[in-house]
């Protein structure tokens, strides 16, 4: 499906973004491995999280998904059944990596696979630590990617030094650690999102976090919980960028998760001179949440690098769009991970920006953008990447000519209803 975006005269009103994708996945997984019932509200009904639901249903977990809530009857740590068919993770890297950790602890063999994009994403990063723990994992095409056959084993606790700051890798190892014979530790080069640690603690596991190291004690008794999923800051990011860049805008974004391991976009925007207020700060289901008031602002360029990168990794495409409307240069570095997302986001972002006339260049580990040029509407290929589709929809709001987004339906991965909300906010 193609979607055409037209210039905006200003975005106004109050908006609630859908539930956090990372937290929604984890709520299903931990609910399934718990004893008793878990009820989730504001669950993200995006394709990725629905893939997680269907994988656990295939392993015998009773999950009811209604308009108001998701209810899971947990089977306990050792209650999953061997699936009859290949587990289909769709487009979801989070499902693929976290599920691998859980499967490594089972007493059966399972195969997982996904769409064309998943079949290109690196799984060696989870094969290595899980193999060290004692599981047997085989990339069936021998290329380090899915399809992946996982034979669970008697796992040992290890201290894994992850070469990448990846919450998917960290979570994978911690989830496998639930099944190990001793404490499992993961140290990462920079702190990545810590939703797994927070939620595991809430379900009753013994988790310790010290700087960039997290540990889990084996064989906890997880107890079902009620989880209220906060709004996804990664989805709020499109509104933040749009309201900042489109003159005369003011948006109130209700109930946005602002966990400090996720709030990098707010810090980067502040460094660019953005006017964003946080109100009504509170903790919900162990996660920090607030309302954001975003007003259009005169922005200047900044450098985004180092430890900030994992806290805004999914927001870089839309931050790059924002940088086109800032005065001076924005440099994004230490972000090689962008190359192995749903698309190679260094290439897909720079290609799209240049097609619109921006002064943007790819680097080995990020990109450089010089703001101030007028962008013009054109046809943008989303490369079936939801975040590329939404980022360029935001760019389209700032072009005199219409912008057409190819394969715009990819937004359903993380933000069903995005284009409807865009129409509403523009009214
Ligand atoms: C996620 C972690 C990040 C992020 C992804 C969701 C998670 O990936 O890009 O969208 O839920 O753990 P990496 O851990 O690979 O950086």
Number of helices: 12
CATH superfamily of the largest domain: Enolpyruvate transferase domain
Quickly count the domains: 2
What does the overall shape look like?
Answer: globular
- End-to-end C-alpha gap: 23 Å
The level of helicity is 25-40%
Radius of gyration (Å):
21 Å
Please state the second-level CATH architecture of the largest domain.
Alpha-beta prism
Mean pLDDT: 98
Strand content: 25-35%
Q: Write out the strand line-up for the largest beta sheet, numbering strands in chain order.
A: 2-15-17-16
Structure characterization notes:
With 427 residues, the chain is an alpha/beta fold. The chain folds into two domains: 3-19 and 230-426, Enolpyruvate transferase domain (UDP-n-acetylglucosamine1-carboxyvinyl-transferase, Chain); 21-228, Alpha-beta prism (UDP-n-acetylglucosamine1-carboxyvinyl-transferase, Chain), CATH 3.65.10. It has helices at 21-32, 47-58, 93-103, 124-133, 167-177, 195-203, 233-245, 264-271, 316-323, 345-355, 386-396, 418-426; strands at residues 3-5, 12-16, 37-41, 62-65, 70-73, 87-88, 109-113, 136-139, 148-151, 159-161, 184-187, 207-210, 213-216, 226-228, 250-257, 275-284, 287-295, 299-300, 303-304, 326-327, 329-332, 359-363, 366-370, 379-381, 403-406. The strands form seven sheets. The protein has a four-stranded mixed β-sheet. Strands 4-5-3-14 form a four-stranded mixed β-sheet, with helices on one face. The chain has a four-stranded mixed β-sheet with strand order 6-7-9-8. A hairpin with a 4-residue loop joins strand 4 (62-65) and strand 5 (70-73). Helix 1 (21-32) runs parallel beside helix 2 (47-58), helix 1 (21-32) runs parallel beside helix 6 (195-203) and helix 7 (233-245) runs parallel beside helix 11. It is globular and about 60 Å long. The two termini are 23 Å apart. Bound molecules: shikimate-3-phosphate. The site of shikimate-3-phosphate has 11 residues, from helix 5.
């Amino acid at each position: 499906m193609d979607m055409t975006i037209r210039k905006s005269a200003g975005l106004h009103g109050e908006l609630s973004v859908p539930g956090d994708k990372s937290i929604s996945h984890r709520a299903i997984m931990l609910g399934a491995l718990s004893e008793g019932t878990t009820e989730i509200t504001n669950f993200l009904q995006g394709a990725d999280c629905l893939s997680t639901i269907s994988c656990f249903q295939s392993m015998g977990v009773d999950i009811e998904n209604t308009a108001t809530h998701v209810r899971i009857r947990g089977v306990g740590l050792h209650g999953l059944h061997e699936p009859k068919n290949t587990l289909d993770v769709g487009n979801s890297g989070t499902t693929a990596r976290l599920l691998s950790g859980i499967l490594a602890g089972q007493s059966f063999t399972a195969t997982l696979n996904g769409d064309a994009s998943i079949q290109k994403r690196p799984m060696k990063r989870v094969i290595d630590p899980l193999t060290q723990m004692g599981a047997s994992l085989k990339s069936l095409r021998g290329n380090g990617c899915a399809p992946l056959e996982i034979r669970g084993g008697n796992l040992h606790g290890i201290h894994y030094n992850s070469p990448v700051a990846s919450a998917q890798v960290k979570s994978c190892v911690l989830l496998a650690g639930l099944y190990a014979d001793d404490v499992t530790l993961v140290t990462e080069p920079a702190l990545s999102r810590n939703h797994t640690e927070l939620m595991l603690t809430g379900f009753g596991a013994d988790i310790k976090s010290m700087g960039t190291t997290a540990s889990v004690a084996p064989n906890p008794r997880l107890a079902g919980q009620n989880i209220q999923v906060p709004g996804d800051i990664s989805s709020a990011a499109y509104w933040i960028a749009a309201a900042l860049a489109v003159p005369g805008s003011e948006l109130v974004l209700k109930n946005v998760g602002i966990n400090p391991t996720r709030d990098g976009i707010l810090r980067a925007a502040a460094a660019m001179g953005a006017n964003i207020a946080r109100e009504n700060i509170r903790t919900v289901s162990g996660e920090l949440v607030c309302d954001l008031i975003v007003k259009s602002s005169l922005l200047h360029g900044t450098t985004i690098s180092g430890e900030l990168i994992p806290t805004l990794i999914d927001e870089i495409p839309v931050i790059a769009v924002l940088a086109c409307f800032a005065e001076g240069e924005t440099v994004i570095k230490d972000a090689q991970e962008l190359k192995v997302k749903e698309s190679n986001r260094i290439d897909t972002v720079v290609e799209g920006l240049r097609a619109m006339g921006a002064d943007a260049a790819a680097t080995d580990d990020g990109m450089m953008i010089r703001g101030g040029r007028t962008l013009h509407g054109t046809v943008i290929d989303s490369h079936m990447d939801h975040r590329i589709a939404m980022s360029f929809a935001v760019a389209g709001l700032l072009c005199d000519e219409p912008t057409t987004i190819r394969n715009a339906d990819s937004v359903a991965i993380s933000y069903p209803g995005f284009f409807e909300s865009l129409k509403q906010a523009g009214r």
